[in-house]
């Protein structure tokens, strides 16, 4: 699976001002809903929050992979957001998070969902990619870092 197939400029934001886990998930849900007529902000937020209640998606090194399944979604989409400052996200390493790579998948895509998460996690384990994302000052910079 190619990350470029699920990420787009209009679903990427750089250095958003945020100070809480709930607020960053609201921002992600807002971006997703603005770019897809088939879903609304509340549905996305509920899906992301439900997943977080099962355990934090903060994987460490300042990175979180919030994700959820949505009815009515036709294909996997990603929302990539960096925050300033980094926020407490209950990450595995207990460090604050500043890179959020959110995935929304069609409700029925269980296997594809796991493969997509694995691909994204692999990409975000690359130190140079992460450095480039943290240096990014525009959405274009984030997309370049991921390509």
Summarize this structure briefly.
By secondary structure, the chain is of the alpha/beta class. It is built from 5 helices and 6 strands, in the order βααβββββααα. The protein is globular.
Please tell me about this protein's structure.
The structure is a single chain. The chain is of the alpha/beta class. The protein has a single domain (3-146), classed as Mannitol-specific EII, Chain A (3-Layer(aba) Sandwich). The chain has five helices and six strands; from the N terminus they run βααβββββααα. Helix 4 runs antiparallel to helix 5. The radius of gyration is 14 Å and the shape is globular. It starts with 11 loop residues before the first strand and ends with a helix.
Number of helices: 5
Q: How does the overall form come out from the CA principal axes?
A: globular
CATH H-level name... which superfamily?
Mannitol-specific EII, Chain A
CATH topology group: Mannitol-specific EII, Chain A
Poorly predicted ranges (pLDDT <50, ≥5 residues)? none
Got a strand count? 6
Q: Which range best describes the helical content: under 10%, 10-25%, 25-40%, 40-55%, 55-70% or over 70%?
A: 40-55%
Largest sheet: 6 strands, mixed
Order of helices and strands: EHHEEEEEHHH
What is the typical, i.e. mean, pLDDT? 89
- Integer-rounded radius of gyration: 14 Å
Query: What structural class do helix, strand and pairing data support?
Result: alpha/beta
Gap from first CA to last CA: 13 Å
- The total tally of domains equals 1
Q: For the record, what CATH class applies?
A: Alpha Beta
CATH architecture: 3-Layer(aba) Sandwich
Taken as a percent bin, the fraction of beta residues is 15-25%
Organism: Alteromonas portus
Domain PTS EIIA type-2: 5-147
GO biological process, one term: phosphoenolpyruvate-dependent sugar phosphotransferase system
Protein name: PTS IIA-like nitrogen regulatory protein PtsN
């Amino acid at each position: 699976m190619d990350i470029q197939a699920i990420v787009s400029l209009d679903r990427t934001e750089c250095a958003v001002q945020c100070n809480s886990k709930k607020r960053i998930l609201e921002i992600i849900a807002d971006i997703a809903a603005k770019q897809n007529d088939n879903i609304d902000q509340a549905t996305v937020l509920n899906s992301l929050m439900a997943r977080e209640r099962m355990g934090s998606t903060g994987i460490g090194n300042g990175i979180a992979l919030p994700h959820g399944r949505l009815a009515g979604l036709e294909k996997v989409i990603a929302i990539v957001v960096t925050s300033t400052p980094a926020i407490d996200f209950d990450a595995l390493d207990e460090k604050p998070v500043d890179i959020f790579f959110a995935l929304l998948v069609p409700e029925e895509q269980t296997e594809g969902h796991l493969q997509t998460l694995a691909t994204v996690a692999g990409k975000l384990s690359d130190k140079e990619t992460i450095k480039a994302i943290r240096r990014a000052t525009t959405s274009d910079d984030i997309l370049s870092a991921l390509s």
